[in-house]
Amino acid sequence: MQQVKAIQINENKKLCFRCGNNQETLFFKSPCSHCGSEECWYCRNCIIMGKMTACANLFFLPSVMSTSHQRDTYLAWKGELSPGQRVASDKVHQAVKDRENLLLWAVAGSGKTEMMFEGMNEVLVNGGRLCVASPRVDVCLELFPRLQEVFPDVDMVCLYGDSTDVYNGERFVVATTHQLVRFYEAFDVVFIDEVDAFPYAKDPFLEYAVKKAQLRTGCSIFITATPDRKWQKECGNGKRNFVKVPARYHRKSLPVPQKIWVGNWKKELQKQKIPSKIHQWMRQKLSEDCPVLLFFPEIKVMLEVASILEHLNFEPLLTVHSADPERKEKVQQMRDGTIRLLLTTTILERGVTFTNVQVGVFGSEGRIFTESALVQISGRAGRKFDYPSGDVLFFHNGVSKNMALAISQIKMMNQLGKRQGLLDEN
Ligand SMILES: [Zn+2]
Ligand SMILES: [Zn+2]
């Protein structure tokens, strides 16, 4: 075991080795039961993972190259990559070989998991170690059994906030990004899914955690459908190694959002009304037997609209938001088709697939609807092979910059897909 001081104090500067915090205001003193001191420093930044005091040491399993039972391949997957996936997969494979960071910019519904298999296999056949990290527990739980099937002979562990699994030096770790702070020089390659997703996009410690978790000679593969502006710019001016996957696996273009002006909807809500364009569209789609997913800028607005819709006989409908304890069940009801109308906050902007869903955004000019949120929301439509298209309507009272950016990003991907021959005509 390697041993490192948990909080490094040099003169008056402090660094929490676990999370990388070096802000003076985030260190506090308290009486300590470990060392008996009345004033032992601890880090508030990572306290949700357990109190880390200055008298504690962190222990790390040194990374050991596995030399036993080396094999030509560990990959048991027999599926086939689409041409777009093939390009990305080769690029990931090369980046892993060269130990180079790479951004995999793949549109929603392109099948990004499969694009990582060969790169992962490359790490494993060379006796290396890897981690797949996602900010969301649901994603980890979904990925883990899938990856176990794909690499059946590799020891794997899934780590998240309240998981009962313990890290035992497995070569293949699936973990929430939070858990990365537990590792030190442990992985040859870290694959980070949804690198832009809340709450890590604005977390300066993610970068620290990733760097600390990987070997000095290691690299990271960043995966997202919606890199932020800064990363997009770096791709544009050659400062970031990247590969774009502009097309979905079903070879149909991404639905381009339409902007529908609905006037001052706040005023209408005060009169217990919603813009007629919105409920007419919903009425029509539901009568065509399509499920409808309507996004809202805030919970309060969503609940107001829900009660108005109930008066208009739009039943049954459900609402869902991040603090909703029945979130999972409601999403499942929508999947099963027992309800056809689901109102939601941005909580469902990513990670969900509903067959033939039609998507609306109520008050899309709202500031919560960032460029990436709107691109992700649009990516909910047309995901299925049998239903590759669908409405995406931005109901607004004035076009925001984010709306314009999101639409141009989607159009850019469609053009690129066409140019690369990854889309069927029409
Ligand atoms: Zn102490
Ligand atoms: Zn800390």
UniProtKB/TrEMBL annotation:
SUPFAM superfamilies assigned to the protein according to its UniProt record, in alphabetical order: P-loop containing nucleoside triphosphate hydrolases
Domain Helicase ATP-binding: 93-245
Keywords: ATP-binding, DNA-binding, Helicase, Hydrolase, Nucleotide-binding
GO molecular function, one term: helicase activity
Database matches in Pfam families: Helicase_C, ResIII
Ranges of residues in domain Helicase C-terminal: 277-426
InterPro entries tied to this protein: Helicase/UvrB_N, Helicase_ATP-bd, Helicase_C-like, P-loop_NTPase
CDD domains found in the cross-reference section: DEXDc_ComFA (cd17925), SF2_C (cd18785)
Protein's name in the database: DNA/RNA helicase
Species per Swiss-Prot/TrEMBL record: Listeria newyorkensis
